[in-house]
């Protein structure tokens, strides 16, 4: 069973620009722009509900302004790599933020 993940690193356009410029479609044909029309929703800037296996390093609502960005990106990439390895080892195919958080 294979895994499908999407990691974004799009340059220096602040937060929503790189995300909204893509045609990202989540569960139920929900566009990311529509999902965030009343404000951004994410779990610490990494993941948002309705968009499984979609991760944003230094994304919207991340605490990136509070740490060294290069070291933060490295830490986040390692954390996400560990998550993918865990999911693969346990045959999970999707991960997604809980909307209640």
UniProtKB/TrEMBL annotation:
It comes from the Bacteria. Its cofactor is FAD. The keyword Oxidoreductase applies. One of its GO terms (molecular function) is monooxygenase activity. Keywords: FAD, Flavoprotein, Monooxygenase, NADP, Oxidoreductase. InterPro entries: FAD-binding_Monooxygenases, FAD/NAD-bd_sf. Belongs to the FAD-binding monooxygenase family. This is Cyclohexanone monooxygenase. It comes from Roseivivax halotolerans. The lineage of its organism: Bacteria, Pseudomonadati, Pseudomonadota, Alphaproteobacteria, Rhodobacterales.
